[in-house]
Amino acid sequence: MAATTTENEYVTLESSDGFQFIIHREAAMLSGTVRNMLSSAGQFTESTEGVIHFRDIKAVILEKVCKYWYYKARHLNSVTEIPHFEIEPEYVLETLMAADFLDT
Amino acid sequence: MSRRNRGGANTTFVNNVRGPTSALTSFLNERGIRRANPAPAPAPPPQAPTATVGEEEEEEEGEDEEQSSAASSTPPTRTTRLTRGRTIVTTTVATSSRVSRSESAKKDGDNQDVNKEDGGNDDDDGDDDDDDDDEDYKVQRTSVRISIRSTRASSSSAASSSKAAASKADATSSKKRPRKKDSLSDSDNPEDKDFHDITGYVQRSNFSHKGRMPQGSNKIEFCSRCRARFTIRAGTKPAVDEDTGGLLCPTCAGSPSPAPSSDQKARPVKRLRRKIQKVEIENQIPSLQDLCIKKIANCIEDVEAFGDISDISLDKICRIISRNRSLSDETVRLFLDPRHYDMSLYDCTEITPVGFKNIAYLCPKLRSLKLKFCGRINDAVMSLYASHLTQLTSLSLIGPILVTEATYIKFFEAVENGFEKFELKHSARFSLKTLKALCENCPNLTCLRLGDCNMMDDEWIEPIAGLTKLRSLRIRNPGRGRLTTEPVVKLIQAVGSGLEELELKGCVDLEDAILVDAIRPCCVRLERLNIAGCELLTTEAVENLFKDWSTNRGLNYVNLENCILVGDEALKALTSHSAETLETLSIKGLDELTKEALLTIARCENLTTLDASWCRAMDDDVMKEIMDSAPKLMNVDVWGDHRLTECCVSRKGMKIVGREGDYLDLKFI
Predict the structure, then answer these.
(1) Burial state string for B178-192 with b = 16 or more CB within 10 A and e = fewer than 16
(2) Which chain B residues are Cβ-neighbours of A96 within 8 angstroms?
(3) Which helix (H) or strand (E) holds B635?
(4) What is the four-CA torsion angle of B490, B496, B501, B506, rounded to 10 degrees?
(5) Fold for domain A2-102?
(6) Domain boundaries defined on chain A
(7) List of residues 6+ apart from B206 with CB closer than 8 A
(8) ipTM confidence
(9) What secondary structure letter does DSSP report for A31?
(10) Are the CB atoms for B82 and B58 separated by under 8 Å?
(11) Positions of the region Disordered (chain B) (predicted)?
């Protein structure tokens, strides 16, 4: 079990323009869509290899989403005041669409 | 569901599935209320009638073991051995009587189980037939199929059922000895009806698939090791666990290690934790979607900041914002642009009259406007639309509760000839007068959709009949007793020749004449037909509609949802008439369809969407057949099809929604 945890500690998310984001599995699991992809019972490549390609999400947006996941993961159980998560207006619509897709 | 029950107590047997009883069932059991016994009252038992209840219960238990293939060890070995000799003699008769009785009472199952060990519970129904009954007929522990038939076919023949077994079963059914005689004598049909009254049970189709099933049909069993449900194909023998004697599913039979069971147990806990976690998260940190929407609302002043957005993504964003119920006077301005011709707002709950007016001011070129849940739209707004939106040809309003009669009339007078499409749902103020105004002022209407209009009745039909250019007509849920057959037949005879789409969903009072006298001769161009919920339509009528309907080239959308009288022949006629064209088919709730008819769906090669929920004869074989013949099939709904297991084949991109097995785990979390 220990071997598999270290192996699966990170997942790789690839954006439409080829950027790879290697992030903690725990953080990625905050997305309903990613969670389903990684934990579905079947032998899907996503769940076996831990690599997910998002053909509709650009790197800028995916980076924003990853940041949000870490932001959420960090402040998940915090009792202090949570800082504001800043989104640039020029990306907000695309981020919204990506967030809707990722169930975040 | 069965697997979760660890308590052993308070269990019932339904379709080979064991689980906790419902609140109602336990209540009824507690009060000693139960359905009457359809079988005639049995005569006294041959063995000593003075036997105590406790002993009899143990006998029952022993007998169960006798029938089961399981070698589970239950404590009362003495009585088991004692009764074994006797039960061997009376096994067949005992089962027949028990079946007939158990149709009514589930109580015995409960009482038996209280005394049973868990292990025994899980393993002992190895021989049991699976049950195809409607949910109200709960046949438990039927080991002799033929005996079921005989009891169903003629209850008088069941009178010959052994006295011993019947009365014994009855003794176990109620622990209170004194009550026994009463319950026996009470068990007539009147009580039967009373039971239905108590439970609010509605008689649907009073028959069983069991009799209609081909002899060699598949059985569904539960694996004794991993507890997964699996199908035993007709004529094959499933693998048997050497240790416990229970049946094994193909997966477990292939891998002899009992390792997966530990996995299975670990899962629900994990899920539970996750769910709690999720709730916590949602309380604290807003979702990214909410953050984005808030940002949009804040930055709405300078829309340029968002950059160029294509119409498709704009519509997508509109749907997302609507889904979050965040479409307000501020956010709606994102979608207001003088260049737009079409506008659809999917949830206008939060938009005030000012926001609605802005639509007319900022988008004067609108041709098509669709407003869902527009409860706050009022007369002033409608008047403004009438005067400002001069190019409007299509208007769709869902829930405009404030708009009055006079305003509708003024609006229709203003839009006049150009108006082509009008949709109105959930309006209590739309009256015959306004409908007449619509039909007189807008003779070029091609699409008319009226749903849930409280004032709709037979008189509304006449003005609609004057709209000769109609291509699409939808009348939905007019209310019981409001819309009768005769006027609708006349309407379809008047406008039917042009109709490409006809929806009469929820017109509950329509009779067969609609199909035979109106649709069949008139609707030659019809492509989409929706007669969902027309409960009075019969199999013969639907069959007559589709049989040799050469004037129509075939439908691509048919919805027969909840036409409860429709049976096999109707579906066969439909699938042979529209075999090549049919793309969407809904046969939800057609309980009486058998496997034979369902297999004819395989003729429809272009099928993309199928809703076969609550068609209880649907099983893995039929699904495979349909899937193999329809390569474009993408969406299948199978809610309540209990013969369909998770083993049923699927393919990439195909969605099967509602499979019972997929939800077994989630149920108790």
Answers:
(1) eebeebbeebeeebe
(2) 288-289, 292-293, 296, 317, 320-321
(3) strand B635-637
(4) 10
(5) Potassium Channel Kv1.1; Chain A (3.30.710)
(6) 2-102
(7) none
(8) 0.85
(9) S
(10) no
(11) 1-215
- Please tell me if residue B288 touches chain A, with a CB cutoff of 8 Å: yes
Residue B261's CB is within 10 A of a number of other CB atoms, namely 13
Torsions phi, psi of B175, nearest 5? -70, -30
**Hey, CA dihedral for B351, B354, B357, B362, is it positive or negative?**
negative
3-state secondary structure of B505: coil
Assign 3-state DSSP to chain B and report helix, strand, coil percentages, each to 5: 45, 10, 45
A96:B281 CB<8 A = no
Percent of chain B's residues with pLDDT above 70: 60
3-state secondary structure B375-404: CCCCHHHHHHHHHHCCCCCEEEEECCCCCC
Give the span between the Cα atoms of B228 and A14, in whole angstroms: 36
| CB-CB neighbours of B557 under 10 Å | 19
Q: How far is CA B206 from CA B106, B209, B215, B565, in A?
A: 19, 10, 21, 11
Q: How far is Cα B550 from Cα B231, in angstroms, rounded to an integer?
A: 41
Instruction: Tell whether B292 is within 8 A of chain A (Cβ).
Output: yes
Q: Count CB-CB contacts under 10 A for residue B448.
A: 23
C-alpha Rg value of chain A to the nearest Å? 14
Distances (CA, A) of B183 to B36, B98, B170, B191, B610: 8, 16, 9, 10, 46
Which residue carries 């993309």 as its tokens? B608
User: pLDDT digit string (tens) for B346-375?
Assistant: 999 999 999 999 999 999 999 999 999 999
Question: How many CB atoms are located within 10 Å of the residue A14 CB?
Answer: 18
* Single pTM value for the model: 0.60
Question: Would you say the C-alpha torsion B206, B211, B214, B220 has a positive or negative sign?
Answer: positive
Residues 6+ apart with CB under 8 A from B420: B393, B394, B444, B445, B446, B447
A82 contacts on B by Cβ (under 8 Å): 284-285
| B33, two tokens | 């209320």
- B502/B496 Cα distance (integer angstroms): 9
Say if CB B466 and CB B491 are below 8 A apart: no
- Give the residue from A78, A100, A101, A104 with the most B CB atoms within 10 Å of its CB, the best one to mutate: A100
B657 — contact with chain A (CB < 8 Å)? no
With bands split at pLDDT 50, 70 and 90, how would you rate the model's confidence at B284? low
Does the distance separating the beta carbons of A93 and B288 come in below 8 Å?
A: no
Asked if B261 and B225 count as a contact pair (C-beta separation under 8 A), the reply is yes
Extended strands (E) in B223-292: 229-232, 239-240, 247-248
- How far is residue B518's CA from residue B492's CA, in Å, rounded to a whole number? 6
Q: Which residues contact A44 (CB under 8 A, 6 or more apart)?
A: A37
Residue A19 CB contacts under 8 Å (≥ 6 apart), including other chains: A59, A62, A63
Task: Write the pLDDT tens digit of every residue in B619-658.
Answer: 888 999 999 999 999 999 999 888 888 777 778 778 888 8
Burial of residue A6 (CB within 10 Å: 0-12, 13-18, 19+) is: exposed
